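>> received
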Amino acid sequence: MNKHTMRLCHCALLCALIILSTLLFRFTIPGTDVMVTLQTLFVLLCGQLLPVRYCLYTTFAYLLAGLIGLPVFSAVCGPAVVVTPSFGYLLAFPAAASICSIVRQKYATTKGSRYAASLCGIVVMYLIAMSYVWLLSKWYMDVSLSPSAILTSYMLIFLPLDVLKGIFAAWLGQRMHKLSLRLG
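>> returned
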């Protein structure tokens, strides 16, 4: 099997893991309307294992599946998801995985680069998601949420768990990379 075909298989596997992590592990935190899932773990793992182009294939395939109506998102599927705060996070997945991949590749020889890559992915994800929530509240919901309300309800409550997921993705990515080198 050639390298491109193998990477496409990895894309399909990671896309399936993002879907499974959404469907099998989800819960809400009281006072929020965004579900907690393990999506971030597998989006960052995608960045830990694949080059940028394949990260985009994986995350766009996931988004497309949900936008056409397949039940792969945590709450709303189909085009209606666009008007939910959760869509800000979903929209950020391609960028988060890609930035994680770029940082990992650029600083591959630097100690702790995988952890920095995950952290960069998380930062990008939250920048996009918080911007989307702000725009959604201002222009669609006609409720102007303050920056502190957005940060509290849509970031700070989720951030500790996302950092743990990022650390685990970096650790797992490193272990999987070492295993692939051994297996040749």
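>> Residues 113-140 form the longest helix (28 residues).
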